């Protein structure tokens, strides 16, 4: 039974291929390709005028200018542990953004080391529910949690030093 169904399907596929080929090369431009002609024969020159920028492009330029004016908080080094465990959700600099788009995790930049440490221990103990954070922290020691908290708490001072 399986062989009969496979044979019928194969015959059907080959039949459709032959029918398509007989209609004039549908996958090679067909009749429409014959009407274009050669692009090298074109004698008409067109002058391209710059299009007006969309509102989104204007907004993006303004945001970029503001960031440059305010200083970039991402110019400081972070540990490899932070990069591997935290940066994907909270950003490389703890801003909660990456390349102008909002990330999944909230902004950590500017929070105190003690608050970060309390939040991390709460996530690990499941007093604050977040499956991702619990999964990342379940095998993390208290000493490592303190190191993460201290590093994140130092972000503003690191940014200030790198902007000088």
TrEMBL record:
<dbReference type="InterPro" id="IPR036909">
    <property type="entry name" value="Cyt_c-like_dom_sf"/>
</dbReference>
<dbReference type="Pfam" id="PF00034">
    <property type="entry name" value="Cytochrom_C"/>
</dbReference>
<feature type="domain" description="Cytochrome c">
    <location>
        <begin position="58"/>
        <end position="156"/>
    </location>
</feature>
<keyword id="KW-0349">Heme</keyword>
<dbReference type="GO" id="GO:0009055">
    <property type="term" value="F:electron transfer activity"/>
</dbReference>
<dbReference type="InterPro" id="IPR009056">
    <property type="entry name" value="Cyt_c-like_dom"/>
</dbReference>
<dbReference type="GO" id="GO:0020037">
    <property type="term" value="F:heme binding"/>
</dbReference>
<protein>
    <submittedName>
        <fullName>C-type cytochrome</fullName>
    </submittedName>
</protein>
<dbReference type="GO" id="GO:0046872">
    <property type="term" value="F:metal ion binding"/>
</dbReference>
<keyword id="KW-0479">Metal-binding</keyword>
<keyword id="KW-0408">Iron</keyword>
